[in-house]
Design a protein that fits this description.
It is a single chain. About 60% of the residues lie in helices and about 0% in strands. The protein is mainly alpha-helical. It is built from 7 helices and no strands.
Length: about 140
């Protein structure tokens, strides 16, 4: 499945906002964001600068992403959960924000809770990123 450029941009920006929630960016979050950026077709230097500067960048729009495709929203939440658990804990502000994004995208609290439980178990392993199965064809043209 191809992701339009605007959706890819919202995906990456939304996950940047997520890692900003607890006011710290861990190396595991940096590593995952670099994988996500690559999967979305963004240049490595752009991803690196975006991740490194997210805590100080006041120009990033703070509104949560609303996706045009429900499946993409589900992938976003799953990848967000992987990011949140990558430092072995989910900060309450990260969870609250992901719940809000899920609700905004029509994903119910029961679904979110099930995905959260799966992510907590999977966090101990090499994390699978949902976005790596998509193609951001619009960005590669």
């Amino acid at each position: 499945m191809d992701i339009p450029a605007i959706e890819a941009s919202n995906y990456f920006r939304g996950l940047l906002l997520l890692i900003k929630r607890d006011r710290k960016v861990t190396q595991s979050e940096v590593d995952l964001m670099m994988r996500i950026g690559k999967a979305l077709g963004f240049e490595e230097e752009f991803c690196k600068q975006s991740v490194e500067g997210i805590l100080e960048n006041e120009h990033v729009r703070e509104h949560p992403p609303k996706f045009s495709d429900r499946n993409l929203a589900m992938k976003f939440i799953r990848d967000g959960l992987v990011l949140s658990y990558s430092d072995n804990e989910m900060h309450p502000l990260e969870e609250e924000w992901l719940k809000f994004v899920a609700e905004l995208n029509g994903l119910g609290p029961e679904w979110f809770q099930q995905e959260k439980e799966k992510a907590a178990i999977a966090a101990k392993q090499h994390p699978h990123l949902e976005i790596e199965s998509f193609r951001a064809a619009e960005l590669r043209k």
